[in-house]
Amino acid sequence: MIVAILPADAQDNQVCSGFDAAEKLRVYHEVDFAEVATFHVCLLNDPQLVEASIEIEVFDRVEPISKIIPANEQAQLGDLINFNFPLDLASELVPPFTLVNYTWTLHFADEPQKTLATESFFYTDDSVAWENTSSEDGLIQIYSEPSDSEIALQAIEILEESRPEILSYLPIGTDITEPVEVYLYPSAELFLTTLRLTGLDWIVGKATPEIGVMMVPISNREQVTQDLKQRLPHELAHLLLYRAAGDSYERFPAWMDEGFATQFEKPINANYAQSLATVNNSTQLIPFREMCVNLPVQPPEMSLRGYAQSHAVVGQLLKQELNDKGQNPIEAVLEQTLAGESCLDAIEKGLEKTPEQLAEDWINQNQPQFPDPRSPVWIAIGVLAVLFLIIILVLWSRTDNTRTLGDFNR
Fold first, then answer.
1. What does residue 110 show for φ and ψ, rounded to 5 degrees?
2. Predicted confidence band at 398 (pLDDT cuts at 50, 70, 90)?
3. DSSP designation for 150
4. Which distant-in-sequence residues (6+ apart) come within 8 Å of 139 by Cβ?
């Protein structure tokens, strides 16, 4: 951090350039994407300042970033002071396309502290010359390179087609008036680079439900339509579910959230079925209670298994009849979540089953029932079979040793 103390008549300084004494106060920020964001407050040292504090809120962070910056004790009344705080965006892992709010509080020697108005900015990846393409109703905003305008129109068509289907499973009144913004990266390489610069590591797509933003790469231009039909409805489902859940979204079971989103991929990812092809008992599944907050990320096969399980069980749940309140399972669990229930309680009260029972139901209805070699019965059978084989071999050996020369002559 730097505290610049300059005479009040120094108007051409680099920081607070053009500051006029009549202005009295200026708050601004400078952003270098994926590197640093510097927050400034410029003012005259009158009354005498002791320090300034800043609180920075990023939408996906639970705790705000806070910093206290002391004033230089040598500052005289009337001097121009610039408090500034450089935030390392890489080490703080601030994701792109999120809203950043920051608030300065000034602390004086002989006056009550003063909290300034909150300032905001949208943290945008400026590595692409984004061009906007909008749906007719303005509820879908696609940002892409100018050369990808045709792909942007395809994206709008896909989202408009999938939106009613997704909403049919969500409570009536889910907010659809706020626009959905999609950033179509021109390549998977640039997309992955951007995410890694900001501490993320997704390759398929990412939604930031809190502010209605989706990031999706154009990975393979030869099959771009197929890729978008898989990715866009998936991410849109996350956004619309968030709008139905509001502040309760973080308590909604992560595996149900992901399982719901995968239902709208077209076509469904074939790797899901392959991941579960050899599963025949619940001990081979990732416990669903362990996927309340997040699905596993590493190793890749465990990540895939988490998505595959979520897709399979939610798909089965959505085929069931509505409950007595006319709710499908997503609505039933969502109602409990909105009532303040935890993830596990919302499942048990909404579906009247534990996560373990849901897994067993799916196994019993869908998977081939091969015997479990680890069960006590099959272990006992295996031991008896081995003993029987040993007895046969011993008897055979004794028979061989008692044969006579006459036996061989015959």
1. -125, 15
2. low
3. H
4. 176, 177, 178, 179, 180
Full DSSP string of 234-269? HHHHHHHHHHHHGGGGGGS-HHHHHHHHHTT-SSPP
The model's pTM: 0.76
Per the DSSP assignment, residues forming a β-bridge with 25 are 43
- The CA distances from residue 22 to 3, 9, 18, 25, 408, in Å, are 21, 11, 11, 9, 123
Q: Beta 119-123 vs 98-108: how paired, if at all?
A: antiparallel
Asked if 230 contacts 267 with a C-beta cutoff of 8 angstroms, the reply is yes
**CA–CA dist 83, 79 (Å, integer):** 13
Specify the pLDDT at position 210.
66
How confident is the model over 44-52, as a mean pLDDT? 93
Calpha distance 358→255 (Å, rounded): 12
Q: Are 7 and 76 within 8 A, CB to CB?
A: no
> Which secondary structure element, helix H or strand E, spans residue 335, and what is its range?
helix 329-338
Query: Tokens representing 207?
Result: 């939604």
Q: At what angle do helices 224-245 and 254-262 cross, to 10 degrees?
A: 140
Q: How far is CA 218 from CA 40, 120, 225, 286, in A?
A: 37, 30, 10, 31
Nearest to 232 by CA among 259, 198, 206: 206
Q: Dump the DSSP string for 108-136.
A: ESSS--EEPPPEEEEE--TTS--EEEE-T
Length of the chain in terms of residues written: 410
- Alpha-helical (H) ranges within 187-323 are 188-197, 224-245, 254-262, 270-276, 300-318
Report residue 340 as tokens. 């303040």
Can you say how many angstroms the Cα of residue 179 is from the centroid of all Cα atoms in its chain?
Answer: 19
For the chain, the structural domain boundaries read: 2-123, 125-242, 252-372
User: What DSSP state is assigned to residue 76?
Assistant: P
- Candidates 203, 272, 263; CA nearest to 233 is 263
Indicate the class that CATH gives domain 125-242.
Answer: alpha beta
Q: Could you tell me which of 89, 87, 80 has the C-alpha nearest to residue 25?
A: 80
Q: Cβ distance 36 to 89 under 8 Å? A: yes
**pLDDT score at 55:** 97
First to last CA, the chain: 105
CATH code that applies to domain 2-123? 2.60.40.10
**How confident is residue 396, by pLDDT bands cut at 50, 70 and 90?**
low
